[in-house]
Every structure is written in C-alpha cells, then in structure tokens.
Amino acid sequence: MKLTEIVTPDRVRVLPPDVKFDKRHTLLRIAELLAQGLSIPPGRILATLEEREQLQSTGIGDGVAMPHGTLEGIQGQVGALLLCPGGVDFEAIDEKPSYILFGLVGPKNALEHLKILARMSRVLRNSNFRARLVSERDASLAYQLLRMEDDAVG
Q1: Residues spanned by the domain of 14
Q2: Could you tell me whether strands 78-88 and 7-14 are parallel, antiparallel, or unpaired per DSSP bridges?
Q3: Residues 100 and 58 sit within 8 Å (Cβ to Cβ)
Q4: Nearest residue to 12 via CA among 154, 150, 127
Q5: What is the CATH number of the domain that holds 144?
Q6: Which among 24, 4, 6 is positioned nearest to 67, based on CA atoms?
Q7: pTM of whole model > 0.90?
C-alpha cells in the first residue's frame, strides 16, 4: 500500500518555522489531522498516540518521528504528515529534534499497520527527500513531494 493511499492532502500540515510546540501539543495536532473524516474524536486518537509513546518514543532519528497506534472501531489505516520546521523534542533515539512527523492509526491486529510503518521508513531514508520536505512551506506541495517519493520507492 502506498502512503498516498492513506495520507490525503487535507491531512498534511506545515507549521510556521517560528512555531515551537512540545511533544504533547504536537501529538494533539497529529491527532486532529488523523481525525479528519473519521467518526473518532481527536481526543481518543491522542490518548492512543500518547499510550504508544509511553512504551517508547517513536522518534526514530534523522529528524523523523512516527507516532502511531491502533484503535477499535476504525476501518483501515489512516495517515497524516505534520512538518515542523522549528523542530520538536520528540525524545528521538539520536537525541535531536524531529521535523517530519508521520502519524498513523489503524485497526487492532492489522499486519498492514506494520507494513505502512516500514514503507514510511523506506521513503524517509532518502536524506535529500527529507531535506526537501522540511524546507517546503506549502502543504499541497509537501503532499506532492510525498507522492513523488512514494512512487519512486515503488
């Protein structure tokens, strides 16, 4: 499954470079993006993301975090992309700020959930792509960059 099948253009946001959020507020913004078009309230999604973060940070390093979780009552995988040019302390394994946050929620016991996280890791492995994505200030253009890289990965 391609990322652009689960991340819709309305679920992509770019924060202004001077905006600094803490981890919890950033998770709330991701939860709000993920909730768009769903019958699940953002607060329930936020609780799921926070519960997963308590196990271990989803900050994977290289400026990337992938907050994710599973929910009862959700149909299929739903993704969101939040770009934070000002950086967020996401307690990443490399102890550096996260700038690219890919949120994902899906049904419990879904193998697809792990496959999507793996695909996102492959897409974000390209340092040139990460740099272009972080420098983008327009959400629709950021979505197009994601689409092109997603297609290039195959």
Answers
A1: 3-153
A2: parallel
A3: no
A4: 150
A5: 3.40.930.10
A6: 24
A7: yes
CA angle 145, 58, 152 (to 5 degrees): 25
Tokens representing residue 67 in the block: 């907050």
pLDDT digits (tens, 9 = 90+) for 77-136: 999 999 999 999 999 999 999 999 999 999 987 788 889 999 999 999 999 999 999 999
Residue 119: count of CB within 10 angstroms of its CB: 16
The answer to whether 40 touches 73, Cβ cutoff 8 Å, is yes
The total number of structural domains in the chain stands at: 1
* DSSP-derived pairing of the beta strands 68-71 and 64-65: unpaired
